[in-house]
Specification:
By secondary structure, the protein is an alpha+beta fold. It has three helices and seven strands; from the N terminus they run ββαβββαββα. Strands 3-4-5-7-6 form a five-stranded antiparallel sheet. A two-stranded antiparallel ribbon has the order 1-2. The structure holds zinc ion.
Amino acid sequence: MAYLPGSGVLIMELDVCPICRKQSGEGPLVGPVIFVNELVSVTHRPAGPAGYVFIESRRHVPYLDELTDDEAAAIGRVRSALARGLRAELDVEFVHAQVSGRGVAHFHEHVFVRHTGTPDEIDWCQQWPDAPLGDIDDLAQRLARHLA
Ligand SMILES: [Zn+2]
């Protein structure tokens, strides 16, 4: 990894950015595609419990404040539709959305459910190890209908 000198800002080159690689169908992050257009990509996490989805900018934009107005609007519309879909397709208490950006410098938003029955001691941003796994490919297809 490389940092912009003196700034602590991570520079991700297109050929090494794991999210750019993912969007071209390569690397360990590739998961079932729920929705994609020229501005935004929505995919389910490739493994783990059902209901953990990533919204990503198609353009290599490092951080939230660098999205164009069109990208921000598209992401907002997709987030709301996705939340409605997750609530309709799974038995959940909440749908959470989080942008942290500390790991990979390509805009991505985590949208994830809190399954019904999650113990109180599991904080909102933690994953319940006993959450239902489900058929992620099937769920991605069902969620796609909510974003069409
Ligand atoms: Zn990228």
